[in-house]
Amino acid sequence: MNTVNKVFLLLFVGLFVLGCEEDSQAKNDDIDNLIESEKFEIAKEKIQKRFETPRKTDEILSFNSPLQKRQLELSNDRNRIVWTEDKKVIFRDLANPTVKVREFPDYFDAISPSSNAEHIIVMFRGASSNGCKLIIVSPLAEKSEYISNASVDCKNRPSISSDGKFLYYFIDNNLYKESVTKNSDIKLIIKNEKFQSPYKKIENKAIIYPIRDTFFIFYGNAGSYNMYWFNPKKKLMTLFAKNILIPKVFFGGIDKAHVIGGTIGKFLLREIKINPKGKFLISDGFKINKRKLYSWQSLKVHEFISSGEKGIIVKWGVDLPVRALPLICERFWGVARDQILYESKTGELALSDGMYGDEDWKLLNIYKQLVKMEKEK
């Protein structure tokens, strides 16, 4: 053990204990004793356990730990969350506290909500094929359900209009529109030759994300996608961006979003802005490393939140250093409103306001020092 590190750590712990309030000192009563006894590994585990446990101020959206991995989606404005727990689809409105649950008799493959999350496509995989059947549910409309006769490739992502009237999906690389209100009226609206493939000789995926009353379509495979903007009302589709690495939209609120561009090993975070006239613009982006691939913007300008090494949540900015938070999770899901949406190590789904006191930061510094000492063994 490095003597300098050991002395520094003991001094730091002494200052930490002196700075604690009485209640907090009771919570941390054995950490300083463990360190003074040089039981560093046990001390590190205790601090880590504390960071892994949701705080009293965190809002627990679900205490359940599902058998299958959760899927989770956000509305464009990040006020609504849709997630899965085994055979259930759960809708939560954060702005007007509302919870709706729809349970199915069978397990399903994926979900895809509308831009306002008021309508949700639930995809059920067929028993003997790669095709999925589509069921549309509307959480705010009791007993509302629509079953499409289409069978779409499960690797693709269909989408639905914000009013729930039209369903969009790909079959054989052609884009179809299905009316939910007119007895399953299905129309071919864009033929496959309109979609450029980065790779001509491999099978492509088509991923559709709703953005307001329009859609982004990612077309490609293997970390290289062309991104199209499709406006169904104007019957207009344009090539919006090339060299998109991940076919996913990271919503930043009502007027912006982000996508990940570049190539393998050279990642770019590109901002999409929506001006008051509804025009979409995309930036050239700036370089990020692998750990920042799944980053969500907070309400602060140029501040982002992502999951760092070993599940530690970090904040960072374009001109700001990475700052770890006293929060360790199983999975960082994103930013809902301006709260950190995460899944705990024990499977709880929770929201954190990201506000921490001096004690938390001091404890985090002790934890970092313990981790550093462990690496230097």
Instruction: Tell me the distance between the termini.
Output: 6 Å
- What portion of residues belong to β-strands? 35-45%
Oligomeric state of the chains present here: single chain
Low-confidence stretches: none
Structural class: alpha+beta
Write the layout of secondary structure elements.
Blueprint: H1 3-18, H2 22-27, H3 31-36, H4 40-52, E1 59-62, E2 72-74, E3 80-85, E4 88-93, E5 98-103, E6 110-113, E7 120-125, E8 131-137, E9 145-153, E10 159-160, E11 166-171, E12 174-179, E13 186-190, E14 205-211, E15 214-221, E16 224-231, E17 236-251, E18 256-263, E19 266-274, E20 280-282, E21 286-288, E22 296-297, E23 303-307, E24 312-317, E25 320-328, E26 331-336, E27 339-343, E28 349-352, H5 358-375
Antiparallel strand pairs: 1-28, 2-3, 3-4, 4-5, 6-7, 7-8, 8-9, 10-11, 11-12, 12-13, 14-15, 15-16, 16-17, 17-18, 18-19, 19-20, 19-21, 22-23, 23-24, 24-25, 26-27, 27-28
Helix pairs in contact: 1-5, 4-5
